[in-house]
Amino acid sequence: MGAVATASVLEAVPSVLTMVSGRVFQKGSNNGALPGFVPYTVVGGYPNIALKTWRLTVDGIPNPQHFTMEQLVAFGVERRHINFQCVTGWAVDGVEFTGIDLAEFLSAVGWKPVDHPWLLFYSGDGVYTESLSAEQISQYRPLLAYQIDSRPLPQSQGYPLRLLVPGMYGYKSIKWLVRIELANHDVLGFWEQRGYPENAYLGSYMGV
Hints:
The chain is mostly beta strands. It has helices spanning 69-73, 102-108, 134-140; strands spanning 19-20, 23-24, 56-59, 65-67, 78-85, 91-101, 118-123, 129-133, 143-148, 151-152, 162-164, 177-183. A five-stranded mixed β-sheet has the order 4-3-12-7-8. The longest helix has 7 residues, at 102-108. The model is unreliable at 1-29 (pLDDT under 50).
């Protein structure tokens, strides 16, 4: 998902024998994730974020702004059907995500790509980060997603808000999103710092 497995959890990556029609069926619990998803974390757990106190911060501009979920939804809601693909090999076909179009939201709050051609994303786990260029945002049209298959995101899949980048591997779709920084330069995300492709379009990674 938004966070790909660390070395300590790579043993949990499913083999081909555990995959049926593109959906993964693990033994035991998958921590509340919908069938087929294998939730990963780089901190050994999931942040416990209360919607009542959660805010999405947009900064890197003179006057940082903070948004509740109710305020975000007021910008307009979209639904996307995608085939979600993890860089480790598993996939879940035909998933519906509901959220706010990232480019339209940022444009409404004053984002000018010519001044801030990069967006930096920060997870509520305190460790995971990601980045996207204005060009990537225009091409892939990410969502600020708060529902999956018409239900709130499970905690293991990024509740209350995650990024969804259709057409890119899941590690770009950062979970537990709490902050977006408008930037004039790139900062490599968590897994890009460890050798994964920055432009993580499906098919860009062939393994190590």
